[in-house]
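In response to reviewer comment 3 from the previous cycle, which asked for concrete evidence that the modeling workflow produces usable outputs, we include below a single protein chain processed end to end. The sequence was submitted unchanged, and the resulting structure tokens are shown without manual editing.
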Amino acid sequence: MSGQESVSSPIKMLSGWPSAVLMARAVIGGVLMGLANLVPGISGGTMLLAAGVYTEFVGAIAGLSTLRFSAGSVGLLIAIGGSAAAAILLLAGTMRQLVVEQRWVMYSLFIGLTLGGVPLVWKLVRPSNTASWVGAVTAFGLMAVMALGGAGSFGQDSSTIFLFLSGLAGASAMILPGVSGGYLLLLLGQYEPILGAVDQLKEGLLGSGGALPDFGLVMASMRVVMPVGIGVAVGVVGVSNLLKWLLKRFQKPTLGVLLGLLVGAIVGLYPFQAPAPPEVGFRYEGRVLEAVELSQVPSEDWPVESFSPSAWQVVGATGLVFLGFGVTMAVACLGQPNKGDATLK
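The workflow returned the following structure tokens.
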């Protein structure tokens, strides 16, 4: 393997307590990662990369899982994990409502935010070679096939095992730049159910109108939150160690795959779609519905159909794409002071 095919130390391990600047970037990166996990098409890993704490985060996770860690690594994980959890808990309901009611607006923004991550991952790939391009094309094809299958094409199965697997899929967004956990949850048909459960957990913890916490709501949300949370924990540990191993032995193909996954995510984010009332034969919660049962399907679970956009919608969508691209690139400036964070070298 040539010098360009391997990396001597792709993951950074903290030996001491992080500096105030690094901790501040960790908190900002954690908030952005939390928001990214709520947004189909945006990678939490890309946001950490942009904030300049990606390699430290992966190193801390990998070290913690092998019992080789420091107080600095634990502090960094607390800063990132705590701020990400707060963002998810507080904003899950709002994000879910926007995706359901303003789909074309949000998807246009998602496309721009995702495209903004391409230059970041491309920096990791350079200089490219045949292996990186083969990995990129293969990953792009995989994402395109999944997208053309339709978001939610796996049905509305919300069994404990399926929720655990959804958590595993969502965990990839915390580790892999270019992979959107929210997007994978959309494809699995679990995006809205999971965000709804998280919002239910928030309502239960906070109560309503200053009332005491509603533990009934909290326990009801646990049916979804618990298996998903376990899946996320297992996925984060597994993917971080796998990524560390792959980057050490197969750097170029691995980085090419990350680039292909990122670009391929755009295929499934066609913005001009809207929920349509279900018809007889629609499959919901594991069964085929009859005419009298269609009214029982909530609007957030309606099938999605494409529509012909108006001229102002096309212009608006284009503007939102550029806005999203600019936001991601602006976030990337946070990582510029520590250039080593953006190279994995």
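The longest helix spans residues 215-249. We consider this sufficient to address the reviewer's concern, and the full set will be provided in the supplementary archive.
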